[in-house]
């Protein structure tokens, strides 16, 4: 755990770096009329604070006299989420921007490096292209097959600028002159297509040339019309796939030409005879038409396309991080199982695809099956996939041996093990050489890191990260392998804060929350999954009530609030505010008591270990769980009203909150102060959601501690209780119990799965039981991130990297490691916040503690040194009163609190002797 070196600065000593527009460094294809800017400051002095800023925006990178916006010198320390306030933005225009700042010492930075963003369309009338589809007979004869569409172009000269705006009802892959455009996959992504449908923008200037050109597009069903959910349901959004594409060309002489999809395009079947999210892909190379996506191809036998009457009003520019291949893994072993199967071990449960690169003999074929585990006998095991096949089948060309490089293009698999059939002629060594695993997920920038002195905890953190990578593939899925892969709201809300420590999830959750609002029902209830594909099944069965469940529907409130805390994005909070209120108002209108939620269906403490026989729901009463979340979400809505200046709402929800808390205490707390439900989850929720008076808090914390110790330092919690269990213990003086709970290696515990070889988080604490048997196949995922929510506690309490929530986005950092009670002797966490890098790294040796801290410019921090002997504290071998950047020092309870400005600090101190 080495130190981070201080970055060298330019001679000015003050610089503006890493300009971003809506979290992106360069943003191609925006439809935001008032985008937000952020930047990071670097300084060679401690305690640097921005005193003013100036932003300039221009359409001409060479001309900063004719500006679209000049903010002037704004006296403000705001350096994130600064909203554009210039002249109206124009469609299909590139804008350049730069920033200059001044600090509190009146030092002025040079202008930053110039950054840019480019707009797409602001109005649906700008779409001139038509939605086109292939021959319907092909669709009917070959469900879930892929079709090819092409268009020939004859350009009079080389364009100086060329942009393609494209989307599909389904999934598409774009080719120009035989070359794939971009590195994005699964475009246009999965949204609530009936309300919001993304399109992508591509700069294709370098792909085109004077003379003959060709555009080729492959079109698959994907989430739009392919199989999703249970009961073999397809066509949730429409019967047929379709393409919408518009090419804009600009020439040297100022001429502009638009070429769009219309009836002049042609279509034909592709070699991909099956492309399914759940079932994989089949590719028959003998059906290839070489050069179909290149100029001068003879398409005389291709069919005409048809125009579909699909809407334009719901089209939006790409919002989410694109899905990309982010890492390539090499198999670590070839296993020949007792059943005679040949199996590749990737060494890691991953999500993505397997690529074969090598020579296939004429007419040969191979099939790959994907699975997460081997069974007790060491054989390939696919039972937990349920009906998902996860198979890739490739048939070679029947005319000649040739070198190929093949991987599925419209399907992803969740797997660690790959069964290989049809390549018996290859040796183990050759198999390891010809196959690679390509990891795929939304390409979120890495935000944080955590490590400590305990190797099993480091492996747990790795499992959490890999679980996030595998399940954040365009939507936050519950699992990436079986016939589900849906955006379960409960899983998302319990994990979102951990997710924000690991990666920059801002665009990812912005997009998903907008879909949640779109799918939210008129009565305010929130579907179990977003995008909502399950309500259709319920409605077909005659279930018209379609209730929302506590802790699941609360994602409508919790997720926007966490986004605000981590990124300071008031615009998103304002955008989601009506959805947030609609959810808590929906709860308020349930049942015969407006302040208790004791009606309807709830998942409860899902998969808790204290569940009754043959039940997935824990023994914590569902009305207790529901009312607890009712109070929590009402509190967040009240706090949101404060942030947004909604005074009447603040008063309304404050009153409701107090009434809910009183109803909770009357219903679930005995007159003596004991919780009516003797479960770990009930106690954790009561403490974390602040539902008790101070005296009862102490008793409840004591009882929670007793429940954990009585159970041998084992947890009994499920999806609802687990995220809060260690927090409730640590916050109320029982951090040593929380550490012992974390370090428990026997079932049930966070570390038990590691003893069974887990490399991701499991759905069940005992997905593989101690005797080696498995949970039933009906619901047993080995990549299910919800229990990875412990990661937030690792960052905030073990490493000590936290925030003062009154100043969001880490404007005021809180550094407060609680240490490891001798079990963990060092920990280190970093976070790329909106203001820059934050570091907290500590080492404990006997009575001595060392703490390294980095706080970025334009922020401050409270550093709390637990059990510190004030007279022993030094920073870089200096007494605190002599240190630049230290603002205040005070003793608080059993700790010393040091308030510091930005900079790189090294504290050392001796612990107080045990009295």
UniProtKB/TrEMBL annotation:
Pfam family, one: Bac_rhamnosid_C
InterPro entries according to UniProt: 6-hairpin_glycosidase_sf, 6hp_glycosidase-like_sf, Alpha_rhamnosid, Bac_rhamnosid6H, Bac_rhamnosid_C, Bac_rhamnosid_N, Ig-like_fold, Rhamnosid_concanavalin
GO molecular-function term, one example from the UniProt record: alpha-L-rhamnosidase activity
Keywords linked to the UniProt accession: Glycosidase, Hydrolase
EC supergroup of this enzyme: hydrolase
GO biological process entries: carbohydrate metabolic process
Domain Alpha-L-rhamnosidase C-terminal: 805-873
EC code: 3.2.1.40
Record carries keyword GTP-binding: no
PANTHER family referenced in this protein's UniProt entry, alphabetically: ALPHA-RHAMNOSIDASE (EUROFUNG), ALPHA-RHAMNOSIDASE (EUROFUNG)-RELATED
Name the record gives this protein: alpha-L-rhamnosidase
Organism: Paenibacillus nuruki
């Amino acid at each position: 755990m080495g130190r981070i070196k201080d970055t060298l600065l330019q001679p000015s000593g003050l610089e503006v770096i890493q300009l971003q527009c809506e979290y992106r460094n360069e943003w191609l294809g925006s439809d935001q009329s008032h985008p937000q800017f952020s930047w990071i400051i670097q300084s060679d002095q401690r305690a640097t604070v921005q005193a003013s800023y100036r932003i300039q925006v221009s359409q001409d990178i060479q001309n900063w006299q004719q500006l679209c916006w000049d903010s002037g010198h704004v006296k403000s320390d705001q350096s994130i989420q600064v909203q554009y306030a210039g002249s109206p933005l124009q469609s299909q225009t590139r804008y350049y921007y730069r920033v200059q700042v001044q600090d509190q010492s009146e030092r002025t930075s040079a202008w930053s490096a110039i950054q840019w963003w480019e707009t797409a369309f602001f109005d649906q009338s700008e779409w001139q292209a038509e939605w086109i589809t292939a021959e319907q007979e092909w669709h009917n004869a070959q469900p879930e097959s892929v079709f090819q569409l092409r268009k020939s172009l004859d350009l009079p000269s080389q364009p100086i600028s060329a942009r393609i705006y494209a989307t599909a009802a389904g999934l598409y892959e774009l080719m120009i002159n035989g070359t794939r455009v971009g590195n994005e996959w699964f475009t246009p992504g999965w949204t609530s297509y009936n309300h919001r449908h993304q399109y992508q923008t591509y700069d294709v200037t370098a792909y085109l040339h004077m003379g003959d050109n060709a555009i080729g597009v492959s079109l698959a069903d994907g989430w739009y019309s392919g199989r999703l959910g249970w009961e073999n349901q397809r066509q949730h959004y429409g019967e047929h796939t379709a393409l919408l594409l518009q090419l804009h060309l600009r020439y040297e002489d100022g001429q502009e030409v638009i070429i769009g999809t219309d009836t002049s395009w042609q279509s034909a079947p592709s070699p991909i005879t099956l492309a399914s999210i759940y079932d994989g892909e089949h590719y028959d190379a003998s059906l290839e038409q070489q050069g179909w996506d290149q100029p001068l191809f003879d398409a005389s036998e291709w069919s005409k396309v048809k125009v579909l009457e699909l809407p334009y009003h719901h089209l939006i520019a790409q919002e989410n991080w694109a899905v990309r291949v982010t890492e390539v893994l090499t198999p670590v072993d070839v296993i020949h199982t007792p059943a005679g199967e040949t199996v590749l071990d990737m060494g890691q449960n991953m999500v993505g695809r397997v690529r074969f690169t090598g020579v296939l003999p004429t007419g040969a074929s191979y099939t790959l099956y994907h699975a997460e585990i081997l069974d007790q006998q060491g054989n390939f095991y696919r039972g937990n996939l349920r009906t998902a096949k996860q198979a890739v089948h490739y048939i070679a060309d029947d005319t000649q041996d040739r070198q190929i490089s093949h991987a599925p293009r419209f399907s992803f698999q969740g797997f660690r093990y790959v069964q290989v059939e049809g390549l018996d002629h290859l040796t183990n060594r050759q198999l390891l050489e010809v196959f690679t695993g390509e990891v795929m997920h939304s390409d979120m920038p890495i935000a944080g890191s955590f490590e400590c002195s305990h190797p099993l905890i480091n492996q747990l953190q790795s499992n959490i990260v890999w679980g996030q990578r595998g399940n954040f593939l365009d939507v936050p899925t519950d699992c990436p392998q079986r016939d589900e892969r849906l955006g379960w709201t409960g899983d998302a809300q319990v994990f979102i804060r951990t997710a924000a420590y690991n990666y920059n999830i801002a665009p990812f959750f912005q997009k998903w929350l907008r879909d949640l609002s779109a799918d939210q029902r008129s009565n305010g209830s929130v579907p179990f999954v977003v995008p909502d594909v399950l309500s259709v099944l319920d409605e077909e069965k005659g279930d018209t009530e379609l209730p929302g469940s506590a802790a699941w529907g609360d994602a409508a409130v919790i997720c926007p609030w966490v986004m605000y805390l981590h990124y300071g994005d008031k615009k998103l909070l304002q955008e989601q505010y009506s959805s947030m209120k609609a959810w808590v108002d929906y709860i308020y209108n349930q049942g015969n008591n407006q302040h208790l939620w004791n009606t309807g269906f709830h998942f409860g403490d899902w998969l808790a270990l204290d569940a009754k026989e043959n039940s997935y729901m824990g023994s914590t009463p569902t009305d207790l769980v529901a009312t607890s979340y009712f109070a929590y979400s009402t509190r967040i809505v009240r706090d949101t009203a404060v942030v947004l200046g909604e005074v009447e709402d603040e008063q309304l929800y404050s009153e409701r909150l107090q009434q809910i808390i009183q109803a909770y205490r009357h219903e679930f707390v005995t007159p003596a102060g004991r919780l009516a439900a003797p479960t770990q989850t009930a106690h954790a929720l009561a403490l974390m959601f602040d539902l008790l008076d101070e005296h009862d808090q102490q008793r409840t914390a004591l009882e929670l501690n007793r429940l954990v110790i009585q159970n041998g330092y084992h947890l009994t919690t499920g999806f609802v209780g687990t995220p809060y269990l260690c927090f409730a213990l640590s916050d109320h003086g029982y951090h040593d119990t929380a550490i012992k709970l974390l370090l428990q290696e026997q079932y049930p515990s966070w570390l038990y799965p590691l003893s069974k070889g887990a490399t991701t988080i499991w759905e069940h604490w005992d997905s593989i039981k101690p005797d080696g048997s498995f949970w039933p196949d009906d619901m047993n995922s080995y990549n299910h991130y919800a229990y990875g929510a412990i990661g937030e506690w690792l960052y905030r309490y073990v490493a000590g990297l936290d925030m003062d929530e009154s100043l969001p986005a880490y404007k005021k950092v809180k550094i407060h490691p609680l240490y490891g009670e001798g079990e963990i002797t060092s920990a280190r966490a970093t976070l790329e916040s909106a203001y820059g890098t934050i570091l907290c790294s500590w080492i404990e040796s006997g009575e001595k503690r060392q703490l390294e801290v980095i706080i970025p410019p334009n922020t401050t921090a409270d550093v709390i040194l637990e059990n510190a002997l004030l007279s022993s504290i030094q920073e870089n071998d200096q007494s605190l009163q002599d240190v630049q950047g230290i603002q205040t020092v005070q003793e608080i309870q059993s700790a010393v609190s040091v308030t510091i400005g930005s900079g790189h600090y090294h504290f050392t101190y001796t612990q107080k002797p045990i009295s």
